[in-house]
Amino acid sequence: MKAHRNHANYWAFALHRLSGVALLFFLPAHFYVLGLAVEEAATLDMFLSWTEAPVVKLLETGLVILLAAHMTGGLRVLAIEFLAWRDWQKSVVAITGGLSVAAGLLFLLNAG
Amino acid sequence: MSSETITVEIWRGKEEGEFQTYQVPRMESQTVLDIVTYVQRNLDPGLSYRFACRVGVCGSCAMTVNGKPRWTCRTHIDKVAGDGTLRIQPLRNLPVIRDLAVDMTDFFEKWTQAKAQFVPTATRADDFAQVSPEDPQRKEASAGIECINCGVCYSACDTVAWVDDYLGPAALNRAWTLHNDVRDGGRAERLKAISGAGGCQACHSHQSCFELCPKHLNPTASIAGLKRATVKAALKGEI
User: Residue A2: its chain B contacts at CB < 8 A?
Assistant: First the structure.
């Protein structure tokens, strides 16, 4: 990270952008798997049993955190652009980060 | 005064060039501008740089110091060279004339494009305008008017680097202060000027301008205000 970018709000922007790009790759795969339910039920069942593996659950947790980070990051941008300005922007970044990790932990707790 | 020296790397050349290294004696309360001036007067008279007031008023001495744009006359070495080395470059996002001096033409041209000048509505015959400092709109304007046009925000902004015609934080901040000046008569035209391509909507709210503004202004907040104002004006059919 270049020196002039090394501050909380830029990190929030970078995470929002990177999570968006990651989800761009995830969503086609997600819809493909959903599509299996219609035409290839056996393949879908095989895939679903694979997702029960602990390492896949961990990867899914990462995905949930990315989704949550992208959603909370998007809400943060909407708040900046459409609500009155608040001076506690760094706290907003901390809250979005905290909510994202909390969403991941909640998923992990229910994964067993 | 101390006998220690500091190692200083200074950019020499234009867009193409190289860093030259100098050893400069450390002094008490020494600023980055003091260092550059020492080099130019004692070690390398050919070094080009720009300054005027030396006290943080004129906004002409901004340079990139260890990767961050700063006003060099008010930046103490103790604050930025913790490890004893200093790397000084010209401001980013502006063409380099030579060494540490950049061409500010684009920066000021964009102020004009943003219609960031006051449009009077009163005549000589009118009495002074009565504006309460407690008026919410006046408070918005007052929060942004201390800009010294140093170009630090313009240099810190990644959107300026990515979008050629982006007006930049300083011009948009100025537009916001005028938008909130009840005496101004150019609001609609100004909102049109700053809502097209390269206008306020191009801002990604990175907030590097706010982080690095030496006057502690918040151009991101001003730009957010302009975004809301342009949406309202568009919904009303004014722009």
Answer: 67
